[in-house]
Amino acid sequence: MVLNRKSYKWFYDNIQCHYYNLAMKWCFRPFGGERKCREKLIEPISFEPTDKILDMCCGTGGATFAIAQKAKGEAEIIGIDLSWGQIKIAQKWVNKLTTRKNRFNDVKFIEADAAKTCFRDGYFNKVFITHALHEMEKEERLDTLREAKRILKEKGKVIVLEVDDPKNFFVRLFIGFWFFYWIPFNFETLTRRDMLKYGLENEVKEAGFENIRKVSTQQGVLQVVEGEK
Question: What radius of gyration do the chain's Cα atoms show?
């Protein structure tokens, strides 16, 4: 079963947003916890003080806050998500986490469609797409990647954080259980398999990016794919 766009948005607006953070804590637990794992995933990424950064499909802002913590400086950081329910929770976390040490009040969250944003051409230095493409059908994945390319500056980079396909049988078995892949009505199953079949790095290339680099981490469970405009 693949949810259409309207059903997907309703599900995240009214149901998923209420337990999304709890689900993320569960999913990242085998990797040392959500915060530690998110920080590790973006550890190889270098930031400039004046970067303009977009976190596409930001959910409740987990990856956005990790990016903001590392970017520091005067970087402009925006998170967008199709679900207003997710965005409302992300904004609440801005208010809760903002301290003198963590000035997350500079992070903005906007309800927006990642495949059709309102940003002008060549605005961002970096666009992150965080754990969302595996929920989309191929054409939608490519539309999202092409939109990322449109709003990136020349030599700007897209950084995709996603699930991967572990080679070790026992790791695959464990992750299948831990990530609830065994649930018959899991709407991510078909699109996730489709993304892994085509290869995320191949789709990043098909969307028009160059100098593509893939790093597989956490015993092949997660991947970071980077491409340059």
Answer: 17
